[in-house]
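Lab notebook page, bench 4
Experiment: in silico fold of construct C2
Operator: M.H.
Input chain length: 291 residues
Purpose: comparison with the prior construct
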Amino acid sequence: MNNNTPNTNPHTPLPPITPGQARIGIFDSGYGGLTILRQIRQLLPQYDYIYLGDNARAPYGSHSFDIIYRYTLQAVQALFQQGCQLVILACNTASAKALRTIQQRDLPTLDPTRRVLGVIRPTVEAVGPLTHTHHIGLLATQGTVNSGSYTLELHKLCPDITVTSLACPMWVPLVENFEYDSPGADYFVKKRIEGIMRLDPDIDTLILGCTHYPLLMNKIVKYTPPGVRIVPQGEYVAAALRQYLMRHPELNTMLSQRGTCHYLSTESPDKFNQSATMFMHENVSAEQIEL
């Protein structure tokens, strides 16, 4: 157990951060957010990062709004206690069900100078210019589909866009059980892609609204009709973060730039390391943390 386990009581004061010493926090309920972290580090390798996976309580998709909000807030507070000035919710479910409440209700009390960002808005902003038919498909977890967040955000930017959503309940288990490249994965990937294209044959842009799904990319490309653009999130979130830091130099000056990355997990470190190494394409060594 990490001896520096943070106290996430909402009344516990956050430690002050000296300019040039803050880190960027990346949070996910499990492993999928590592695909976001990998893209961010490729684009912005100079910064220092802390990744926190709440693997012991994953997946979040089947939980109620209140539970997802409470778990996500605990993770954000933990990353703030670890010295993060900015936290990215690299989890579509948390972004859909907790981000707005944390931004509007909790940050003013915790520390109005700190920031929490999500992954849905950057994805939506990138997708609008990509579609020609104005018919977009969303493949995601049941929780993200039920939230309606993608449809809401897309309609804010492009009111005439038609959004068709379909949950893929087997895709995350395939990834987390190392079956993403197995012959058995073909059945489940083919079934969902054919299913969403039947719902709307005019779809020309397909959002992968779960951070696990890029590991299924070989299968997804195999069964997606020609001419349909596939949109994973990592590169768009990374580009949006770079633009955000350029627009907020006062935040950028707070961040340390030693090119390090530290991993925390609520699960056994050995189990996390094995799966995280698969996502990151490099050896990972994590510490256990309790939220």
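Observations: Residues 1-7 have pLDDT under 50 and may be disordered. The first strand starts at residue 23 and ends at 28.
Next step: discuss at group meeting.
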